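Dig into my protein:

:::
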Amino acid sequence: MKDEKKKNIVIRLLSNIYVKNILIMVIVFVALVAVVLFALNIYTKHDKSSTVPSVKGLQMEEAGSILASAGLDYEISDSIFQTGGTPGAVLEQIPKGESKVKEGRTVYLIVQAKGVQMVPVPELKDFSRRQAEAQLNSLGFERIMVEEVASPYAGIVISVSYKGQELRPNQKVPKGATLKMVVGAGGESLEDSIENFDVKVEDSFFD
């Protein structure tokens, strides 16, 4: 009986227009407070910054662990071959170390390729020495041993070889490898060259 009376009282209160308005105001107030607190939480996190640790030179596994500990994401943007580099090591990072960034920022990494990059060497026979060296340099070959031999065509490439083997056109060799270039030095007339060729042909014919 008492429970029923309490229930009736509650129903009467809720049916009262003034009580309804007060309840609505309380609910709206609580909702506004919740929204403001949520917005403040987002705003404070938005302005929170982190210092990017320098991971250049480190292996990817170690670099990734350090960046994650600093609250940063990371992504490998490129994998390249650099002469003398350590396979799997970080070569560059963006943003650079000690930069101030927002938490959760992605750091982009360029790493040393783990495999040896093979590069095709184009046909360079009959090119001038300067042209041939320029082409090889542009392909990443900086160490070029030049041997000059007697030839009627001074400064003209006769052959390019790697580890003692003459290269075929577009044969692939490790990028940055040491190549040997044989270049004509002059000192032999065209007639002498033809005579030597004829002698070689005759010798091979009678052998």
Confidence is low (pLDDT under 50) at residues 199-206.
